[in-house]
Specification:
Alpha-Beta Plaits; three-stranded antiparallel sheet; single chain; two-stranded antiparallel ribbon; 182 residues; alpha+beta
């Protein structure tokens, strides 16, 4: 990659996504230059590692061995903790949410919802719960923090602090995913 390219990370990320496309979200996650290879058991993991390392070699991409970690049972990755049970919210991030005081301005609402929103996939109906708070962030709306906003704020905090574990689906059969836009 040429020196001084202003969008180098985006270009590199695009390259990694194109190279790893057949395996993305099957057993590998790529974020810029970080690879996370996950598997259900050691035998499967060995094959997944072999596949990705062969792919990198074929594409003439290299990993610095001293920066690699192999066969680790638990990893912190992009604000999540991932282990054999599934994906968890990072407890260190949740600590700051536990102690968060009620917002006093639209900016403080944005700050809270920015952090909480990162974990919204752990909370069913996140947007519906947050709606009373987001209404106060609109322009030309007077900021009046009331009972509805406080209730929504406390409910989001409580749900984030007791977030479920997200796990990979079991079995090899096709499955359907139903989504709602809330």
């Amino acid at each position: 990659m040429p020196f001084g390219l202003t969008n180098a990370s985006a270009v590199f990320m695009d390259l990694m996504n194109r190279v790893c496309k057949p395996y993305l979200d099957k057993f590998v996650i790529v974020f810029i230059d970080d690879f996370l290879i996950y598997s259900k058991n050691k035998k499967e993991h060995k094959e997944h590692l072999r596949t990705i390392l062969k792919l990198l070699k074929k594409e003439e991409l290299y990993a610095k061995f001293s920066k690699c970690e192999f066969w680790i049972p638990k990893v912190k990755f992009l604000g999540h903790v991932i282990n054999s049970e599934g994906i968890h919210v990072d407890p260190a991030k949740i600590e700051s949410i536990k102690d968060w005081v009620s917002p006093k301005s639209p900016t403080e609402i944005h700050q809270f919802l920015g952090l909480a929103g990162y974990y919204q996939r752990f909370i069913e109906g996140f947007l519906k719960i947050a709606k009373p708070m987001t209404k106060l962030t609109r322009k030309k709306i007077k900021f009046e923090w009331g009972d509805k906003q406080e209730e929504a704020f406390q409910l989001l905090k409580q749900k984030l602090c007791s977030a479920p574990i997200l796990a990979l689906p079991e079995g090899s059969e096709d499955f359907a995913a139903y989504c709602n836009a809330s």
